[in-house]
Amino acid sequence: MSGTALETEARMLRIARKFSVNTLKSSRLCSEHMYFGNTRMGVISVVQQNCCLRSYSSPPGDVKSLRSVINPHISRIRNIGIMAHIDAGKTTTTERMLYYSGYIRAFGDVDDGDTVTDFMVQERERGITIQSAAVTFDWKDYRINLIDTPGHVDFTVEVERCLRVLDGAVAVFDASAGVEAQTLTVWRQADKHQIPRICFLNKMDKSRASFTYAVESIKQKLKTKPLLLQLPMGEAKTFRGLVDVVTKEQIIWKPTSDLDDGKNFEQKLLLEADDPNLFQEVQDARNTLIEQVADLDDEFAELVLGEYSENLDLIPADKLQSAIRRVTLAQKAVPVLCGSALKNKGVQPLLDAVTMYLPAPNERSYEFLQWYKDDLCALAFKVLHDKCRGPLVFIRVYSGSLKPQSAVYNINKSCTERMSRLLLPFADQQIEIPSLMPGNIALTVGLKKSATGDTIVSSKASAVAAARRAGRDAGGEKRSSSNIESLLLAGVEIPDPVFFCTIEPPSMAKQQDLDNALSCLQREDPSLKVKLDPDTGQTVLCGMGELHIEIIHDRIKREYGIETYLGPLQIAYRETILNAAQATDVLDKTVGDKRHFVTAELEVRPRLGERATTKPAIKYAVGVIEELPKEVQGAIENGVTNSCIQGPLLGFPVQDIDVTVQSLTMHPDTSHTMLSACVSRCVQKALKKAGIQILEPLMNLEITVSEDHLSAALADLAQRRGSVQEIQSRQDNRVVIATVPLAEMMGYSTVLRSLTSGSATFTLELASYQALNSQEQSALLQRRMGLV
Ligand SMILES: Nc1nc2c(ncn2[C@@H]2O[C@H](COP(=O)(O)OP(=O)(O)OP(=O)(O)O)[C@@H](O)[C@H]2O)c(=O)[nH]1
């Protein structure tokens, strides 16, 4: 056998063996990743041969169809996210989806730490999803790109980033808890991105599961119209199946004697004789559904009032399904399904609903796409670091196409990069493909500078052409360069971190390694910020929560082998101004034979009533902007933005200010760097004059606690400057809704656990920034100066 043939066979054996492994215990980041050949032909031949190796284990049933579906028709693609509160069952549901679609031979168990999508060591140990993992699989004739998103609020940015590339989402609920805090947060994020959703009431087998309660909480808390497409047959211990309200078919899972994997179920029309009460319930539910849909969809209303007005029973299932699809896509209502992922019930109908009711990529509209026409526009939405192949970047293509071995241009980084390979992330395998078409998602190899959230286009010329179109189509309105840039970007808004701490390597010799590790981690996770403390020269980590920083610390140790020391965790305060103030600054420097001369006059003003932002609004007095070339404007904007990164009092970011450039004169030889420096100094002067107010992060806190421990939790909250807004009942528990300053929440999880014997859970989410009173502000100043 030739060397190549031997290699191919070895590869085939490895592939076959890998499919037969029931549990995927090794970390996939370090494991050898297999390629199915470099060319399309290679893909076909290896897959065909592999299909013959049935004695090892059959590969996923549909792998052979890869030949025809490397780039399925856009209408057959579903880019779907699964979102929910922590522990609602997203990972378990994903595993079941992969199993039923044939991409894994046995499902993993979150509790045993062997799932496919939770693959980082920390995720397996802690049983939570930290980084969203994108997984591709086929269900019937559809390509599903599924993204499992994290439930912990420290990783909200991960959720936001995923929502950007999704066309639809499945919201998973614990049927015994209904809508929980994090679901609400993610739901709002999905509203912001206008993502059509379906709801899956999971855990119907749990002792306190209640379909009615969960539906009611969706109605009340999410302020949406649930469309009940299924009714459960039994609840808790008696939960055994579902009735499809649209088709009136009952689906009952029947375990075989040796296996209860949920593959075996009976689907048949529900007859009155089977269960008269249930039959009537389904009949009523179908009529209600028809009325709801007719209220929301004119086309369907015509059918109901016309052809079928005499007998609603005669409305064909496919007409009702099409109407449900239209109202779901228009986000006028949300289909609701139910099941138990753990007990293997309800996941196949959920997959059918995903393909039936959620949109294809071409059914969504994205504003930025109009500027690209048919040119490539893609978004890098996730970066992984593979020890052998370097950074792997997950990309979604919106328009145009992507090919391996080609150069692409990153708008955010203003650089051209070369991409060597394109891979489809099929379950835990990656399959090399020759091109990626609009609407699809893939992994790229070779992009070294691209980070999560970057927009990728075919070339600089294409970016310039798009910018020109965006500027030209502005309808006479003058847009600043940063406005045009934001129009072109498919990127994600990253909230500012609320916690920070210093991080030190064990010795100076390891500093370089630590810097490398941190820059890799930052490319993966843009919510992690790293900066250098200008006074002490120490590296500072800024993150979204205690858990976030803890995980980063852990990953540096495990993945990069560096034992680091973290300083005490501190709060990321903000600074703002109390009054308007003006300042003038003059820079006059001669470097070599060049004279750099600038005079700048600026005014700073508090911005009222808008969403808190650290991005200063930059304005120009009448007559100033007309005279300024674009590059000079860019340098001024740079200077203003830089001066707001570190406020004059404690060095925290400055928020909510307007800066007006009142006059500016400069010598023609002046460099842009000198101009920025002068503007920056002038803003700092004005800020100092305007009076600085320190702001602290105020958090929304939701504690779910049993009645017996409620008073202990409330007493503790009072000590933390907490303000209780509402106490709700949720089944046997109480839910405390409060706001509390983040500064009072250090180590809260440990305290709450001991106060409530581990029975309470909580979620914490940034609400706003509130002003410290003068006593608190001077106490903080003293602490920061080391006086107390
Ligand atoms: N009774 C019951 N338990 C379930 C069901 N689905 C999941 N679980 C359990 O609920 C726990 C959380 O499940 P996961 O799948 O990790 O939930 P998740 O939403 O992915 O959690 P995070 O990634 O941490 O946000 C595990 O102990 C599961 O075994 C279900 O249908 N019924």
Overall description:
It contains 21 helices and 33 strands. It is globular, with a radius of gyration of 29 Å. With 788 residues, the protein is of the alpha+beta class. The chain starts with a helix and ends with a helix. Helix 17 (630-645) crosses helix 18 (672-690). The strands form six sheets. The chain has an eight-stranded antiparallel sheet with strand order 15-14-19-12-13-18-16-17. Residues 84, 86-92, 110-111, 127-129, 150-151, 202-203, 205-206, 340-343 line the site of guanosine-5'-triphosphate.
Bound molecules: guanosine-5'-triphosphate
Number of helices: 21
Cα radius of gyration in angstroms: 29 Å
Q: Averaged pLDDT, please?
A: 80
Number of strands: 33
Share of helical residues: 25-40%
The proportion of residues in beta strands is 25-35%
Distance between the termini: 77 Å
Q: Main β-sheet: number of strands, strand sense, barrel status? A: 8 strands, antiparallel
Q: Structural class, please?
A: alpha+beta
Gross morphology is: globular
Strand order of the largest sheet: 15-14-19-12-13-18-16-17
Parts with pLDDT < 50 across at least 5 consecutive residues: 1-68, 123-132
